[in-house]
Amino acid sequence: MTVRTIRRPLFAVGLAAAGAVLALASSASASAPVRVGAATDGAPLTAVVLGGIGKIDASGAAVFVPVTLTCSQPTQVDLTVKVAQAIGDTMRTGTTTRKVACDANTQKVRIAVTATERPFAPGVAFGVVTGNSCDALCNSITDEHRFDLAL
Q1: Which residues are CB-neighbours of 81 under 8 A, at least 6 positions away?
Q2: Residue 92 vs residues 49, 61, 62, 106, 147: alpha-carbon distances, Å
Q3: Prediction pTM value
Q4: Closest CA to 75 of 59, 56, 99
Q5: pLDDT tens string 75-105
Q6: Over pLDDT 90: what percentage of the chain?
Q7: For residues 64 and 111, what is the distance between their CA atoms, to the nearest angstrom?
Q8: Pairing of strands 90-102, 106-114
């Protein structure tokens, strides 16, 4: 048996394995939730969604970010909201953590995020909101995507 006759079957097996991995990866990503993390069964916090438009205030020193929470039962949620905005070669950022009471419904809250070094400006930004709740079960849900900042 020569090296050439051994390589061909190994190459074919390698191609088949790569195809299987790609097929599994694409089918798994197709069924994954798009923006809202899945909650653990029985956990009180079931969804956290970052809103589409943040309102700039105080000449860009802060932005009010809309967040929608859904809880299956009353609980306290630790919300962390991060905002990043690139304008030219500069970056504007801010992070805020707040404790929010969530009742057994869907509710909207506005979280103020203060700019760290440079003021926010109207335009596109990227936001990340993470909700953490610990009652009988602990769970964490994150939503992240681009959104608009407006005056």
Answers
A1: 50, 65, 67, 95, 96, 97, 98, 111, 113, 127, 128, 129
A2: 22, 10, 11, 31, 14
A3: 0.73
A4: 99
A5: 999 999 999 999 999 999 999 999 999 998 8
A6: 64
A7: 5
A8: unpaired
